[in-house]
Structures are given as structure tokens and as C-alpha cells.
Amino acid sequence: MLTVADVYAYVNSRAPFDTQMEFDNAGLLTGVMEQPVTGIHVALDCTEGVIAEAENLGANLILTHHPLMFHPRKRLTEEDAEGRLLCRLIRKRMALLAAHTNLDRAAGGINDVLAQVCGLQNIAGEAFVRVGDLPASMEATALQAYLSQRLGTAVRLMGPEGRTVRRLGVSSGAGGEFWSMAKAMGAEAFLSGELRHHEALDCVANGMIGLEGGHYATEAPGIFALAGALQTHLNAIQCNVCVSKSLIPGYQG
Ligand SMILES: [Zn+2]
After folding, report:
1. Are residues 190 and 73 in contact, defined by beta-carbon separation less than 8 angstroms?
2. What is the third-level CATH fold of 107-213?
3. Which residues is 63 bridged to in the sheet?
4. 24 CA distance to ligand 1 centroid (A)?
5. How far is the CA of 236 from the centre of ligand 1 (A)?
6. R_g (Cα) of the chain, nearest Å
7. In angstroms, rounded to a whole number, what is the distance separating the alpha carbons of residues 33 and 23?
8. Cα of 55 to ligand 1 centre, how many Å?
9. Long-range contacts from 175-179, C-beta under 8 angstroms, 24+ separation
10. Cα 63 to ligand 1 centre (Å)
11. Which pLDDT tens digit goes with each residue over 53-86?
């Protein structure tokens, strides 16, 4: 019988939990390691909708990228939205497992998959940044269109539109601060999920092109990859891994 501990061990083998950042709280957040798993539901975030989906599918393990309780709490009541989620998980005896910064940095993790989706070659990696060559040199506006098509979203461009770029750095999610690491690794342009105003200004002032693709579009491909690998791993014992509807582009609700 598959247990929460087995799934934890598999995720740990791909993205060791002890490689997470100090501020992070990836790992088992609710539930019991010894609990038998009836199904696994994969999502970017644990929301009321995701828990309802898991319930309807008979899954009792939710695997997300973003952890709950990212900000420490001193009480667990249903007076706030996150408290309601946690109480619901506990009442329904659902395990919540989060693979966050450990998955961002892992080989084959969120940033590696993002670099693949962007079609990069000769990839170099360090922590939360991947830098590689685009299939061809392109002007910034062409790069914007190329990445928008690759990521299935409207990528925002910051910097000189006519500048030619060959080497692109990427950092998923809220990785905007890593533009300087990408530059140090030879990137001429930098894509992140979120490039905050002053990060973008600094990035452009230092001769880079800034590109913002949104938190979802830069992280979802890596979550799909993990769900696929997990399903392949578990096929032999016929445990179902389902991907939440919330991970389908354009899904509202
Ligand atoms: Zn994120």
C-alpha cells in the first residue's frame, strides 16, 4: 500500500527537501507519513477549489508547489482563509505536501523545465537561475513574441526593443532579483515570472532586456513535469496522479 512517506521519498529523490531555502517550509504540512494514499492531486497552490477537486476524485494527498503556512501562524481557527483551508485538510484527513524552493533549484525541476520550454541550449545553471542560448539571435520584440508563444501568455518587455539578444537567463516565479546573477552568467536578457518595478529598472539600467511572463506561466510547466514523472513512477501500483483544473491555462474558478 502506497503511503504518504513513499510519495515524500519519491519527491525527495527528485528535489531533496533539505536543499530548500532557509525561509521556506517545503515538506509535509498536514497529515501523517504512515497514511495510505488513495490518490494524489497536483496543483500550484492549495485552494478551496483544489481541495474540492481532490475530494471529488477520492485523492487524499495534495502535492503543491507553494506551501501553506509560508508565514508562521500562532493560532489555527477558521477566522481567516488559510486557517479554513488547513482545518478543512485536517477534518478530511488530507495530507498536504509542498515542493517549493527545493523543486525550483532541482535538476529537472521548475527552472530546468522553464529553460527547456524557452528552447534554450548550452544551459548553465546556478541555484534559481538557468542561462542558455536561444535557437537564434533575435531582436527584443521578436524575443518577446517568441517567449509569449512558448509560454502561452503575454510576456511584458522592458528595455530597448531593437536590441539583439542571443543568451537568455530565466528564473521562475518571483525570481526577479536574480537578473544580476543571470547577467554574471552571460545573459543579455532575463525572463522571470515577476520582475518588480525597481528590479526591472536595475536590470535595464545594467544593459539587460527584462521580460516578465507571470508567476503561473513560468512555474506550471515544471509542475506538469513533476506530476508526469510521479504518475510514471506510480503506474505499476495503479495509484492515480491528477493535475488540478487550476493548472489548465485560462481556467477561472
Ligand atoms: Zn512560485
Report:
1. no
2. 3.40.1390
3. 42, 97
4. 11
5. 31
6. 19
7. 23
8. 24
9. 175/128, 175/129, 175/218, 176/200, 176/203, 176/212, 178/127, 178/128, 178/129, 179/203, 179/206, 179/208, 179/210
10. 14
11. 999 999 999 999 999 999 999 999 999 999 999 9
User: What is the Cα–Cα distance from 236 to 213, expressed in whole angstroms?
Assistant: 37
Nearby residues of 56 by Cβ (< 8 Å), 6 or more positions away? none
Residue 138 Cα, ligand 1 centroid: separation in angstroms? 28
**What share of the chain has pLDDT > 90, as a percent?**
92
Distance 39 CA to ligand 1 centre (A): 24
List where CATH 3.40.1390.30 sits in the chain.
4-102+219-247, 107-213
Written out in words, the top-level CATH class of the domain with range 4-102+219-247 is: alpha beta
8 A C-beta contact, residue 210 and residue 179: yes
Measure 1 CA to ligand 1 centroid, in angstroms.
32
Give 95's strand partners: 61
Gap between the terminal Cα atoms of the chain:
34
- Tell me if 82 sits within 8 A of 69, measured CB to CB: yes
> How many angstroms from the chain centroid is the CA of residue 10?
18
How far is residue 115's CA from residue 221's CA, in Å, rounded to a whole number? 10
For residue range 107-165, what is the model confidence (pLDDT) as tens digits?
A: 999 999 999 999 999 999 999 999 999 999 999 999 999 999 999 999 999 999 999 99
What is the Å distance from ligand 1's center to 65 Cα? Answer: 7
**Which set of grid coordinates corresponds to residue 167?**
543568451
